[in-house]
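> forwarded from #structure-qc
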């Protein structure tokens, strides 16, 4: 399914790193930033999530709730979060359903099948997608300036 700006965000429920179920629609009334990333403990994913950790106050000031999402299990997400001392939740899309719903799944990446693409989505307070960036390579880095610009425009 192709994702388009202006469409309702596909709702989902996933387990977070603390074994809590997180449902996107529970965050209506808040702007949500979803950061899909291929795999925990890899270099670009580490750089991306550390950027978010180090700048989370700025995103909070833009009224954004941030979630990282990958196909890793909730136990891997918990270990990755602790390893990087992250200050936001990581969600486990182990069954790949959310990555598929957001058109953010590589059929193959190297020798692996079904790995999350690096992608970013901003969902506004009404549950509408306002920003979408799906990167063609797992080694690409999100456009955080464009993400911040979109969040500022929503406030």
């Amino acid at each position: 399914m192709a994702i388009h700006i202006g469409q309702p965000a596909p709702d989902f429920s996933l387990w977070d790193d603390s074994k809590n179920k997180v449902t996107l629609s529970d965050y209506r009334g808040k702007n949500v930033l979803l950061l899909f990333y291929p795999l925990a403990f890899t270099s670009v994913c580490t750089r991306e999530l550390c950027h978010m950790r180090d700048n989370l106050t700025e995103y909070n000031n833009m009224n954004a709730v941030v979630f990282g999402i990958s196909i890793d299990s909730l136990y891997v997400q918990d270990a990755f979060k602790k390893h990087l001392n992250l200050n936001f939740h990581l969600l486990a899309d182990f069954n790949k359903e959310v990555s598929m719903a957001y058109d953010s799944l590589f059929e193959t990446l190297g020798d692996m099948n079904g790995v999350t693409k690096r992608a970013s989505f901003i969902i506004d307070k009404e549950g509408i997608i306002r920003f979408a960036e799906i990167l063609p390579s797992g080694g690409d880095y999100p456009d955080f300036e464009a993400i911040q610009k979109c969040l500022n425009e929503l406030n």
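QC bot note: Helices lie at 43-61, 74-84, 97-101, 144-154. The chain has a mean pLDDT of 92.
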